[in-house]
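Q: We require from you a single protein entry containing the residue sequence and its fold in token form, and nothing else.
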Amino acid sequence: MKAVEYRLPKEFDKSFIVFTEQGTYFPCPWHYHPEYEFVLVNRSTGRRMVGDHIGHFDEGDLVFMGPALPHVWVNDAAYVQGQAKQEASAVVVHFVEDFLGENFLCLPEMEPLKKVLDLSKRGLVINGRTRLQINCLMNAMIGESGLKRLSSLFAIFDILAHSTDYEPLASPNYMQHTQGYYSDRYSKITDYILRNFHREITLNEVASEASMATTTFCNFFKEHYRMTFVEYLNTIRIGHVCKLLADSDENVVNIAYECGFNNLANFNRQFKRLKGMSPSEYRRMLELKSA
């Protein structure tokens, strides 16, 4: 199943887009676009898919996504069948990277925000006090215009830049590039794994690539990636499996081998652990969503 590219019209007198999505259910299919996007669900429940992530959403759910990341919000059956007590409603904000000029992100004041923008390539679910603050600002933006509207977006940027109340959604395989503020060693490890995950990779091999002793590498990896090397490798592989399940009709067994799994029992166990369902159930969900 291929994601559809979506482009929303922008009003000529505005530098970015703010709109309310409201109706019986959210009709937009599996899609992507070149803009960064905030999605705040005010009313409705269901499942959201962001890259290879599948999770539940409820009222107040807030997600921030980077450009070209496929996603869809699928309402629960009561909304789709028109039996919910109220309509589904969400506030959405779109902006492109250079919406205030091509050198906008080069300004020194924007440096703290760059890390969050880079992480948004995987999609971020925003939690806690940060979510409450941003939700309030986004709801107010619907009735704002001019500098007030722009200042609200900058207030959101400021809150995010100084917060850690967010979690990545899609697997690391959706992060195709690392930014300069990451160390060379971090980038070298990540790039090596992304280039070679389809075959057997040993711990000693990756440690050598990073010019580290194996024990040192294990400690370094656990500290910086917040998981073991094997857990990270399986996350990468399962992420690519999900991409192939979505983009092709290839047999699940063949996909597993293509993505570096040489033991089907382990493959099924890892997929269930990370996605909460079997590969076949994941593919059926994609088919139902695209119907």
Summary: Residues 174-290 form a domain with the Arc Repressor Mutant, subunit A fold (CATH 1.10.10.60). The radius of gyration is 20 Å. The CA atoms of residues 38 and 99 lie 15 Å apart. The chain has two domains: 4-170, 174-290.
